[in-house]
Amino acid sequence: MSVETLEFQAETKRLLDLVINSIYTNKEIFLRELISNASDAIDKLHFESLTNHDLLGGDENFEIFIDTDKNAKTISISDNGIGMTRGEVISNIGTIAKSGTKAFLEKIRESEGKIDEELIGQFGVGFYSAFIVSEKVELITRKAGENSAVKWTSEGLGEYTLEDCEKDSRGTKIILHLKSEFVGGEEFDFTNNYVLENLIKKYSDYIRYPIKMNFTTKDKDDKEIIETRTVNSMQPLWVRNKNEIKPEEYEEFFKHQFHEWENPQEIFHTKAEGTLEYTALLCIPKRAATNLYFADYEAGLQLYSRHVFIMDKCKDFLPDYLRFIKGLVDSPDLPLNISRELLQQSREVKKIGKALEKNILKQLAKILKNDREKYETFWSEFGKSLKIGVYNNLYDEKVKDDLKDLLMFISTKDDKFTTLAEYVERMPESQKKIYCAMGNSAETISQMPQMEILRDRGIEVLCLIDPVDEFAINALQKYNDKDIQSINREDFELDDEESKKAKSEVEELQKSHEELLKDVKDAIGDEIFQVRLTSGLKSGAVCLATAGGGPSLNMEKTFAAMNNPFMKALRILEINPNHELFKKLSGLHALGKDSADFKNFCNLLYAQALLIEGIMPKNSVEVANQIANLMSK
Question: How far is CA 524 from CA 521, 598, 600, 621, in A?
Answer without folding.
Answer: 5, 11, 9, 16
